[in-house]
What does this fold into?
Amino acid sequence: MNDLMSYIASYFEGSLKLEERALFEERCVSDPEFAKEVAAYIVMRDSLKQALAGQKRTEFAGLYEETKGSEQEKNAEGSRPYYLFKNFAWYAAAACIGLIATWLIFFRSPEPEDLAQEYAAASFSTLSTTMGGVAADKEDMQQGIAAFNAKQYKKALQVFQTLSADSAARPEAVKNLGITYLVTGDYSNAIIQFDVLAKMNLYINPGLFYKAVVLMKRGQDGDRVMAKKCLKQVVDRDLSGSREAKIWLEKL
Amino acid sequence: MALHSDTEIIEGLKGGGSQRRIFERDLYQGYFYLISHGVKKYNITAEDAASAYSDTIISIIDHIVANRFEGRSALKSYAYQIFSNKCVDLLRKDTTNKRKADHGTALDSLVFELPDKARNAIQQIIAKDEWRYMMQKLQELGEKCKQVLLFFEDGYSDKEIAGFMEYNSAEVVKTSRLRCLDKLRKMMGTNDIVK
It folds into this structure.
C-alpha cells in the first residue's frame, strides 16, 4: 500500500498529532508533488461523497413517492398548530375517516394479492430516472426506463436484459428487469431477477421485499408462506421495504 | 411529524449500525410538509422542492454524523433553515453554478478542512472538471471497493463496516479501503485530476 495515501488519509481522519498536522499543512504549500497527491485524495473523497449523495437521493425519491400521499397532508396540519381548534370540524371529519380506516384495517383481512396489487400499482407504474453511472450505460438505462414508462414492455425487457448481463449499471438493470417481468405477469422470471438482486452487496437492496411482492401477487400454493418468510427477513435485517413488510406481516 | 424525538434521531444517526437507516427515513418523513411549503413560498415545482428537501435531509444527516450539528436549534428549525437556503439556491441557479465554476470546488469539499494557506495551494491544483472524470472512474472501481469506500464516506466506522461486509477486523477494513483509494488513484492517472 502507498504510505503517502495512508499519511494523507491520517490527516483527514484526524489521527495526526498537532505538530504533525502543522507539518502536513506546510508541505501542501512548499512541496508541489505532495500537494498534487493531496488534491487527488480530496477529489476522490469529494467524488465518493457525491456518489453517496446520489444513492441517498435515489432512496429518498422512493420514500417521497411512498410518503407524499398520506404524510404530506398529515404534516401540513402539523405545520399550522395555531389553527388546530379553528379547524375542529375538519379534525372531526378526519377522525371519522380514521375510524373507518381502522375498521377496514382491523376487521377486513385483505388478501395478499390485493396488498401486492396496491403496492405494485403505486410503486411500479413508472420507473424513476437513474443517477450516476457510466455515460453509455446511463443512456441505455434511460431508454429502457422511457420504454417502460411508455408501457413498451418488450423493448424495456430487451434493454434491461442486455444491461443486466454485464454493465456497471447491473444492479439497477436487474431491479428494473424484475419489475418489468412483474408488471407483465411473468412472475417466475421476476422472482429469479429479485433473487439475483437480493444477493448483491448493495447499500440499499429491495430484492427480497420485491420477491415477497411477486409471491403475494402470484398467490400459488406455498407462495403466501414463502412471502411471509421473505417479509420477516426484510424486517429482521431492516432491508429496504421493512416499513411496509412490518405492516403486511400483521395483516397476513 | 417525526416518530422519534430530536435526541433519539441524533443518537440514532450517530449510533450507526443497521438501525441508522430507520432514523434517516424518520428524519426524511418528519419535515415532509416543507416540500409543499417550498412550492407555495418560492413558487417552484414540487419536483424541485422535493429535490431541495432531499438535499436538506442529506446535509442534516451529514452534519449530525460528522458532529457538525451543534444542537443550538431544534431539528425542525435547522431543517427549515437549510431547506429555505436550498430553495433560494434553486431560484438563483445561475449564480450558484457560476460560483461553483469560479472556484472549481464543491462548497462542501474536504478541501475546506485545510487552513487558508494550504487550502489555496490545493484549490489551485484541483482541475475544474474533475467530477465528470471521477464519477466514471468510480463506476469502474469494482463493487466491493466502492461499497467499502461509500460506507466510510457515510460516516460508518471501520468496525461497523467489518460487521456489514464480513471483514475479519476493523484493521482489515482500514487496509482495504486505503488499497481501494490507491487503486482509484492509479486509475485516475495525473492528467485527469490535476492541472
